[in-house]
Design a protein that fits this description.
Elements (H helix, E strand, L loop, with lengths): L1 H12 L4 E5 L11 E5 L13 H29 L5 H24 L3 H15 L2
Antiparallel strand pairs: 1-2
């Protein structure tokens, strides 16, 4: 859609445009009026590739990716582990949660909601939950 709008602009709007306004039918000399004037030229240019949203999300991913990578590695290790009993698994998960909370809680509290949403999206796409 964007390419077709740019093509339209380049083909039809960038050249000098001329317009006719008035009665275009032949009639008697007194009542026949044709107005003619040339429009100014203008150029259409595309927006820069690095627009605001692209830069914003790039900065979010750069800030959040180390935490997401740590979470992905922890989840993969947890999936690979096998436990004898549910009790042992539950106990291990609780100790793991406590250790992760102690090491990352303060830094993750400083994230905005949108940064948290981007981090969760990265984790979900990588782990395929």
């Amino acid at each position: 859609m964007r390419n077709s709008l740019i093509l339209f602009g380049l083909l039809f709007c960038s050249a000098i445009a001329e317009a006719q306004i008035g009665n275009i039918f032949k009639g008697d000399e007194e009542s026949d009026t044709i107005f003619y004037f040339a429009l100014d030229t203008f150029n259409l240019t595309a927006r820069p590739y690095h627009n605001y949203n692209y830069t914003r999300y790039t900065n979010m991913v750069n800030r959040v990716y180390p935490y997401a990578d740590t979470a992905i590695q922890t989840l993969r290790k947890l999936e690979a582990m096998q436990f004898d009993k549910k009790k042992n698994e539950k106990k291990y998960k609780k100790t793991l949660e406590d250790s992760l909370r102690n090491s990352f809680e303060e830094t993750l509290k400083g994230l905005t909601r949108s940064q948290g949403a981007v981090m969760i999206e990265i984790i979900e796409r990588t782990v395929e939950l």
